[in-house]
């Protein structure tokens, strides 16, 4: 044992073996770093931070191995295995393992104990989780994905679980209002964006109820929800997982849960006439994305390709919607939607924006701070109105609807796509799938906002002249949609993939209202293959 002179905790260094190779292994308990290197050339050097060690186990070298050439004529070897995070391509994480052995049983135990002590210091890791599985999400593989890929990792990491297979829509949400939530260090949902939305509504709703906050009041200061949500992707789009982790991979997500990552996330509330409708974290879309969702819900039997089918059909229908958008610009944030400053792990734009909001709150008082500023008003005919709380990246659109939207800056990117030709709209949609700038069109506008409202034209007209509704609607029907004979009362918003039927809405972004077991998308340089070979 190496004793540092300055009273720091000693570093453990030993000569151990890996298979037939001798190696030196060091555990720096102060830095929380496990390092090993070959005793002979090529002297490769590896290191793993304790924060990325999943588990340490004593390993039995079985009879067969002992009698093989490797261990023959040797005293009984004692071994331990370290399981740790290995970074693969495209933000994908895997569980790797390395077995070390020696003939000194005491030394082996010292290593096991020291590593376990270090793991005990990782206090942000969950020990007990509540898991909801939607057996019907995506390709209906949620249960299998959990049992085969996730449960074994949780058990390796000594995480205990209570698992509920949902029996109907809203099962998870309703259950979260009743369950003894204090028992758990987090809630995991296995499914798609709809399941995340359910769990989020359950947890945020429960937190407000317990704190006596009325969700129907659009101005109420909501209480932050501190129970972290883990998302095991098993849905059709998995946008929330993809945009917060970088990939929709169940093993990667399970590992982020195990190491106890925390990612604060903005949540927006949607109200209509002082009645709470819904929260969302990814996309609130009207026009194109609302219509795609409405049509695709009728085609759930098609599975995940329903979105492609309905997308094509909606594209051909080329409906546009007339109305007024009012928004309050997000002055507190340093970013802007076209600045190419992407939200990455430890994002300083998110940190500084949150600080700025807190300062405003201190200066002007809760409730009075948020409405400050000048509202802007835009009237027009829109093919799509999208409010992206995050990039909305997903496998269909790897950079998302607003590539530089921030996860936790207290703002959303409001994208207005004005009426244009089918060909131009196609060019816009195609840019969701390639590297070109989707905001570089004369018919597309994007604003970073704190709040916004939308009122549909036919409702504005209704307000001014209620008697003539039938005539007016018929008039608009003929004028705007002469070919497709569409139903003008299509008022569906796509709210995190859930339908919301109200054309007039009021939206407010709540900075960092909830937390995920994630860390955001890592910078490419830190997502090299680990353990880091030095
Ligand atoms: N047992 C169940 N039976 C029917 N519906 C359920 C059940 N459990 C959950 N749901 C509902 O199913 C809806 C869709 O589920 P989910 O989001 O998991 O999959 P998806 O829609 O295929 O994926 P995505 O939202 O990523 O496109 C959710 O809104 C949820 O409320
Ligand atoms: C003809 C080329 C068309 C290409 C169109 C690509 C568009 C990709 C759009 C991806 C949608 C991302 C937004 C995600 C929304 C989710 O909340 C929701 C629920 O999972 N998913 C959908 C598809 O509405
Ligand atoms: Ca945001």
From TrEMBL:
A Pfam family per the record: CERK_C
Chain ranges of the DAGKc domain: 124-274
Domain of life: Eukaryota
Enzyme Commission identifier(s): 2.7.1.138
Cofactor: Ca(2+)
One of the GO BP terms on file: ceramide metabolic process
Xref: InterPro entries: ATP-NAD_kinase_N, CERK_C, CERK_PH, Diacylglycerol_kinase_cat_dom, Lipid_Phosphate_FormReg, NAD/diacylglycerol_kinase_sf
Transmembrane helix keyword on record: no
GO cellular component, one term: plasma membrane
GO molecular function: ATP binding; ceramide kinase activity; magnesium ion binding
Keywords: ATP-binding, Calcium, Kinase, Nucleotide-binding, Transferase
Keyword Lipid biosynthesis applies: no
Top EC category: transferase
Name the record gives this protein: Ceramide kinase
Organism: Sphenodon punctatus (Tuatara)
Gene transcribed to yield this protein: CERK
